[in-house]
Every structure is written in structure tokens, then in C-alpha cells.
Amino acid sequence: MSEMRDFLERMADKYPEIMDIKRFPTQDDVIDYLDRKGELIEPVDIDEFAKGGRVGYNTGGFSEFDVRETVVQRPAPFIESAGAGFLTDLESKLATAIDTSKFAPQVAAQNILQQQAAQQAATAAGLGQLQFEGDAGTISAAPAGTGVASFEPFIVESLRLSGIDPTTGQTSAAGVSAAIDPFMSPFQQQVIDTTRAQFERDRAIQRQAIADAAITSRAFGSGREGVQRGVFDAETALGLAGLEANLRQQGFLQADAARQAAIANQQALASQVPTLEQQSIQSLTQLGTGQQAIQQAQLDAQAAAAREAAFEEQQRLGFFGQQLAPFSGGFGAQSAFTTTTQPPPNTLNTILGVGTMAGGLLGGLGQFMGGMG
């Protein structure tokens, strides 16, 4: 049997067509084909005859006394029947393409949380209402909006409070004065009027003291008294002017300090608002990403189930081929049939998985064909 198997293996290399199960369903058919090709002129398993000289070899022609013996060893009928059924099922299955669209990789679409986070970011950047009509709910358009970022109004206000002319970018006295005016106390004039009145009363009392002193010294109405009153009145006028100037200066400084504080507040808001918005966007993004991961896992599980269902028959055929090989005494490459229930991370892994299953099925075919030897 070993010599016959070796002989068939050599002939299979020379005549690959003998591996066609349709043309040569049995080993007898293969032997007849090789005989027609003139390949049976070498000695075969001829027992009980002398082996010396030219016995068993072609003598150059055929005669009625030529003896040729062909030994055909076939597997048991139940093995041959099982193998034939196996090959028929295998051929049918391999001829039918698998609809891979049922377990093609899918990407979970963006959910409402992720889209809301994107919209907040777009609004903060001055864009309009985003459109999510792309693949898997991605952004398809970003129309123009106000063109004003969320922090820009605070920057503009801080520039105005600084007295900077928006057209020239330069600080002007008129701009500073206009920025300070709103911070001036609305009661400043009342404060000035009240303070002036009090000052004038005090000065009037002091002026009367000059007259009283002149009467006591019997110099009332004299030139000396007149000089004293003139000097006193001049000092009073000067004091009133200085008092009002000081009050107005104090009001101005207080208003300018308030303006400076307002500038600092606007600048702080310009920094804080984007930070708060970013925190909100990150929170929405994290929630949305978590939901998308769950959706992706569901899609992968569905694809894995569909893939298992699609290859279930191939799995059974591959397993059957492995179990059949030991009984048929097959030759050829040994190939283990394996599959995976995990969803492939990419298309390449899917292709490799299909190649593994195909290798298992073809390995079973080779083993069965070897059992015919």
C-alpha cells in the first residue's frame, strides 16, 4: 500500500488532473487513466513470482503471455461513502459566496451628547448651527454665525474702558474721559455744594471776628481793617476754589479706580468664560463617548453573532474532515480548523480568519484524497 501511495503521489505531481474527484471518483479510474498514459510499464506489487532478471518489466512489446497485475486498495465502503458526501457538501458550500455584509464592520454614530458638545464649541467660536448629516452623524457643514467668539465681548468692553479708539487702536484722552464718566458719583455736585456752604459759613464767622476786633480797638472802618478784610476775602475765594478742586479730584480718582476694577473684571471674564465652556464641552464629550462605546460594543456583538451563523456550516465541515482523515489514512498537509468569536479589530483580521477556515476545509479534502491511495 505504501508503494502504491508513493506511486500515486508522484503521478499527481505529473498529472494534477487525477485529483479531480468528478473525473476520477475512484482509484480504479485513476489507475485506468495512468494505464492509458503508459505509466504502468514499471513493476507493480506482483507477489508470488520470481523477481530476478527481466521479470515484471516491459520487454518492448505485448503478447498473450505478458502478465500485468494492478493492486487497488480502496477504503472501507462506509468511509468512502462518508468521504463522497463530505466532498459533495464541501463543493456546494465553497461554490456559494458568503454575504459578508451581514457582519461587515460598523462604526457607532455620534450621539446627541457628542453633537451637543460640538455645537457648544462651534457657538463659542462664533459659528452657526452645525449640520450633522455626514457618515455616522459627523459634521457635514458649519455655517457662519455671529463671527464673535464667546470671550470677544469682554475683550471689546475692556478696550473701551481703557479709552482705546477701536478704529486707531490708540488710547485717547476723550476715550478715557468717556470711560470714566459713567463711574463718577451722581451726588458729587451735591457734596461739593454742601462742603462749599459749610466752608463759607466758617469763613463768614471768621470775617465777623475781624470786625469785632476792629471795633474793640476803635479801628473799625480804618484802612487797616479794610486791608485785613480784603486779604481774608481773597483767602476765602482761594480756599473755595481749592476745596472744590480737591473734591472733584477725589471723585475722579474714585471713578478711575472703579474703571480699572471694571477692566480687570472684563479681562477675568474673558478668561473664565472659555474655561467654563470647555469644562461643559468636556463633560458632554465624555458622556457621549461612553454611550458611543456601548453602542459600538453592541454593533460588534451583533456582527460577531452574524459571522458565527454565516460560517457555522464551514465549521462543521472542517470538523468532519478532521475526524474523517484518520479513518481514511490520508496524506497531505495537516491543517487545524480554528475560528474566533471575538469581533475582528480590522478588515485584515477578518480576511485572515476566513483564510484559516478555508485552509481547514481544503486540508480535510487533501486528507480524504490521500485515503484513496
Tell me briefly what this model is.
It is built from ten helices and no strands.
Question: How does this structure look, described?
Answer:
- The protein has 373 residues and is mainly α.
- It folds into three domains: 1-73, no CATH class; 74-98 and 311-373, no CATH class; 112-291, no CATH class.
- It is built from ten helices and no strands.
- The chain has helices at residues 2-14, 27-36, 77-95, 112-124, 152-161, 173-180, 188-216, 223-310, 312-328, 347-371.
- Helix 3 (77-95) runs antiparallel to helix 9 (312-328), helix 4 packs antiparallel against helix 8 and helix 7 runs antiparallel to helix 8 (223-310).
Outline the secondary-structure elements.
Layout lengths: L1 H13 L12 H10 L40 H19 L16 H13 L27 H10 L11 H8 L7 H29 L6 H88 L1 H17 L18 H25 L2
Keyphrases for this structure?
mainly alpha; 10 helices; 373 residues
